[in-house]
Structures are given as structure tokens and as C-alpha cells.
Write a structure and sequence with these properties.
The chain has 87 residues and is of the alpha/beta class. It has one domain: Trna Endonuclease, Chain: A, domain 1 (3-Layer(aba) Sandwich). The protein contains three helices and six strands, in the order αβββαββαβ. It is globular and about 30 Å long. The N terminus is likely disordered.
């Protein structure tokens, strides 16, 4: 059953020099979308026994209520992928 669940979770993973980065690219994201992304990160950490070093959302349109949620959850937000530092 866990394999079935894992097949249903879609998330982008970047591993560079041992740093694990999970990323979500969306045209727009709201408060609920931030919580969903954070749950996917927790799912990944639990099922892969791997600590995620950075959580990144790339979206040109972020609902202002989502900004506070992202800050509380430690999610970095960028409007353009080219703006990401230290990748």
C-alpha cells in the first residue's frame, strides 16, 4: 500500500553536493498549496529516511496569506527559478 501512495505524490527533487532540495513549481499558489507542499516534504523525509535541507516554491503569483504560512514552515519563495541563490 505504501508503494501505491508513493506513486501518487509528485514532487521535484534536486540533490547537489549532498544537499537535498524539494521544489514545487506552480503558476499560482495559495495557503492550502503551501500546506500540501509541506506535507509532501514530510512524506518524502519519512519514506526515504532523508532530511530535506531546503524547501522551495517557484511561483509568480503567491497569495499574500500563503506568504506567512511559507515563512512559518521554512519554505523559500521565488517568482522565477533564476532568482534562486546557492543552487
Amino acid at each position: 500500500m505504501e508503494k501505491y501512495l508513493a506513486d501518487q505524490v509528485e514532487i521535484d527533487i534536486i540533490i547537489k553536493n549532498g544537499v537535498v532540495i524539494l521544489c514545487k513549481i506552480k503558476s499560482n499558489i495559495d495557503k492550502a498549496g503551501m500546506y500540501i507542499f509541506d506535507r509532501k516534504v514530510a512524506f518524502y523525509e519519512k519514506h526515504h529516511h532523508q532530511t530535506v535541507n531546503r524547501k522551495i516554491v517557484i511561483s509568480p503569483k503567491v497569495d499574500k496569506r500563503a506568504l506567512r504560512v511559507a515563512e512559518n514552515l521554512g519554505i523559500e519563495i521565488y517568482s522565477n527559478g533564476e532568482d534562486i541563490e546557492d543552487l
